[in-house]
């Protein structure tokens, strides 16, 4: 069992500053701390100044019905919703962690089409309603470990990717699964401007080996904290692979393709010596910029919370170890 | 250099003092506010990152502002601007120290072996540390009596501020996951500032070069 994380103060979600106050503070700090040059370039963010009334309203979230958390969930202290939804790496909406919450609110998630094709017997097309209705939903409280050495505990709502893949009936020649995020520069300012998007070649793509994709821990999330996903967290549907670094858990999916070749993945393409295809959480393999031996757990509490904890192999999900039997995980990072 | 105004601007003693008080108030007040918001969990989702970010970017902003003061003072001309340069430079150093302290205290939470190994093993931190060492030397020798005592050696030492600025920018660029982000603009500004001083810098480089040849 992974070590249970104990924060120095015990707070419930209600004790936490509500989201609005967060965003206001964040605006002030941002305004004083230099308006990011990238946001100066972005049309959508020209009014980014602290007296700006937050006119870009947060997207409405719909409650979901789902089964209570089962055996795969952790009982660790959850990261409050305000933090989960305001601290995101989603470069399609800007490289600053507060950019997605500010710029993604208007993302059109309905109508939506998610295609499942490639080496399958039964190609599928799911529309917006299918995403939350076709498969029974359940809550999964997972640890999320970012490659930048911070982590959160998030109550996702979703279904196993395996269920979706079984419905599509992979051919025996299928070995890998390739994932693709929406490409729509009109909605995603980071795709329209190199500066907003950090110079990444879009669309964002990710991949898994078929056996990783079929593992029961691998989740297609359509919600968090009991309601549909906020756009900044990857609405309307995203992947969650809890034993891998966060960048593997690709957001706002439009296509899932089964293939016989290892698909290219965005961060690996950008810096192959820093980000591997596997990207399993591994405290023994350092990234050039981050020792991965420990992490800071983001929950409630300010600067003085002692929240640095040891990082566990596979982020504590040791049940996936058999997938990598006999592999040198230092080489296949 | 061309001048903007025909007659130099002057700033009498009282407004000068008020300006200095204002700089103190803003620079100290912002730090206090950051710590207050950080301690009460009002600094966004990750107060540690927010603190590192604000102190780091302001250390660089202030450093670049301090480097623009003398060209501005000459170009306007507005010689009294020079009276604020040391203050701005010292605040750049203060912010950089608070930045380093935040890294030790809140990011790595006083795990000294990890702090030491991070400084040695992560190139972007090594470079930031080098910049901080230079800034410390400059701050330590910044008082007028020391400046007098050091004579021409003082100017030679303080020319290292350019190295500190370049190292700090390298640190900034390296700390991010991709190249196409804010630091690009900072590099352009730094390039501009270096260009304004090209004569002096070339002169220093040539002198070094000649000395080496003569040996
Ligand atoms: C021993 C010295 C230093 C250490 C250990 C250090 C540490 C760090 C760390 C860990 C980050 C990354 C924060 C993140 O993960 O996002 C960072 C970013 C940064 N540092 Fe430093 N730093 C040092 C010196 C300096 C100095 C001297 C300056 C400027 C004069 C500076 C300016 C910056 C800036 C501008 C950033 C980027 C802020 C951001 O975009 O988030 N640092 N530093």
Automatic annotation (TrEMBL), chain A:
Swiss-Prot/TrEMBL catalytic activity: L-methionyl-[protein] + a quinone + H2O = L-methionyl-(S)-S-oxide-[protein] + a quinol; L-methionyl-[protein] + a quinone + H2O = L-methionyl-(R)-S-oxide-[protein] + a quinol
UniProt-listed Enzyme Commission number(s): 1.8.5.-
Quaternary structure (record): Heterodimer of a catalytic subunit (MsrP) and a heme-binding subunit (MsrQ).
Oxidoreductase molybdopterin-binding domain boundaries: 107-267
Keyword Ligase: no
Entry function: Part of the MsrPQ system that repairs oxidized periplasmic proteins containing methionine sulfoxide residues (Met-O), using respiratory chain electrons. Thus protects these proteins from oxidative-stress damage caused by reactive species of oxygen and chlorine generated by the host defense mechanisms. MsrPQ is essential for the maintenance of envelope integrity under bleach stress, rescuing a wide series of structurally unrelated periplasmic proteins from methionine oxidation.
Cofactor(s) annotated in UniProt: Mo-molybdopterin
Keyword terms of this UniProt record: Metal-binding, Molybdenum, Oxidoreductase, Signal
Molecular functions (GO terms): oxidoreductase activity
Annotated family: Belongs to the MsrP family.
Amino acids binding Mo-molybdopterin: 88, 91-92, 146, 181, 233, 238, 249-251
Cofactor binding remark: Binds 1 Mo-molybdopterin (Mo-MPT) cofactor per subunit.
Superkingdom of the organism of origin: Bacteria
Protein name: Protein-methionine-sulfoxide reductase catalytic subunit MsrP
TrEMBL record, chain B:
Keywords: Cell membrane, Electron transport, Flavoprotein, FMN, Heme, Iron, Membrane, Metal-binding, Transmembrane, Transmembrane helix, Transport
Residues of the Ferric oxidoreductase domain: 55-168
Keyword hit for Transmembrane: yes
UniProt remark on cofactor binding: Binds 1 heme b (iron(II)-protoporphyrin IX) group per subunit.
Top-level taxon in the UniProt lineage: Bacteria
Coiled coil: none
Entries under InterPro entries matching the protein: Fe3_Rdtase_TM_dom (IPR013130), MsrQ-like (IPR022837)
UniProt topology in membrane: Multi-pass membrane protein
Cofactor(s) the protein needs: heme b; FMN
One Pfam assignment: Ferric_reduct
Cellular localisation: Cell membrane; Membrane
Oligomeric form and interacting partners: Heterodimer of a catalytic subunit (MsrP) and a heme-binding subunit (MsrQ).
Function: Part of the MsrPQ system that repairs oxidized periplasmic proteins containing methionine sulfoxide residues (Met-O), using respiratory chain electrons. Thus protects these proteins from oxidative-stress damage caused by reactive species of oxygen and chlorine generated by the host defense mechanisms. MsrPQ is essential for the maintenance of envelope integrity under bleach stress, rescuing a wide series of structurally unrelated periplasmic proteins from methionine oxidation.
Family that this chain belongs to: Belongs to the MsrQ family.
Name of the protein described by the UniProt record: Protein-methionine-sulfoxide reductase heme-binding subunit MsrQ
The species this protein was found in: Alteromonas salexigens
